[in-house]
Amino acid sequence: MRHAKAGRQLSRNSAHRRALLRNLVTSLFKYEQIETTDAKAKELRPIAEKMITLAKRGDLHARRQALAYIQEKAVVHRLFDELKDRYMDRQGGYLRIIKKGTRKGDGAPISIVQLLPLDEKGKSQKKKAAKKKAAKPKTRTTDRKEMTPESVKSEQSAEARASQTSEDTGEEGKKSEA
Questions:
Q1: CB 29, CB 75: distance < 8 Å
Q2: In a 10 Å sphere around its CB, with 0-12 CB exposed, 13-18 middle and 19+ buried, how is residue 62 labelled?
Q3: In which element (H, E) is residue 35 found?
Q4: Could you give the residue ranges of the DSSP H alpha helices within the chain?
Q5: What is the 3 state secondary structure string of 98-136?
Q6: Which tens digits make up the pLDDT trace of 39-94?
């Protein structure tokens, strides 16, 4: 029975699996986007999100915990200095996993793992903005000049002349038929 054995083995022993995930997390924060198999991407997500949460906490203990896992000191400094500001307002969901297709050599499913950019809003915020736009009644723009009594009369007389000319052409057509 497999009780209390969560996570994927990834065909590796525990030390190899830990080293692999440490390398993946380091590369992700270094390049902000990596390409790997679907299973590795799914295992990578909780670890990377935990590192971002440590960076958001920002104290010395959190920095030392991140340094114990991430393999390059410069990457940890970048995470705590630059990347944490990007996610201060988010409560989670810092990564995006996009399925790319299959690898040519062995047919393994490949995914792209990327950190979400700074300006990206959540889907719920986009939906709320769309609902607000739809709920607002459309108002006419005030580009037109103000309608004075003289301009109203001139527009009415122009419409009357247009209707008279169309009636005249209609009467001429009737005369030619008769």
A1: yes
A2: middle
A3: strand 33-37
A4: 14-31, 38-57, 60-69, 73-78, 84-86, 123-135, 149-177
A5: EEEEECCCCCCEEEEEEECCCCCCCHHHHHHHHHHHHHC
A6: 999 999 999 999 999 999 999 999 999 999 999 999 999 999 999 999 999 999 99
Q: Tokens 């209390």, residue?
A: 4
Q: Is 96 exposed, middle or buried (0-12, 13-18, 19+ CB in 10 A)?
A: middle
Cα→Cα distances 57→46, 64, 65, Å: 16, 12, 11
Q: pTM (2 decimals)?
A: 0.67
Comparing CA positions, the residue from 51, 112, 101, 110 lying closest to residue 77 is 51
Beta-strand pair 95-102/109-115: antiparallel
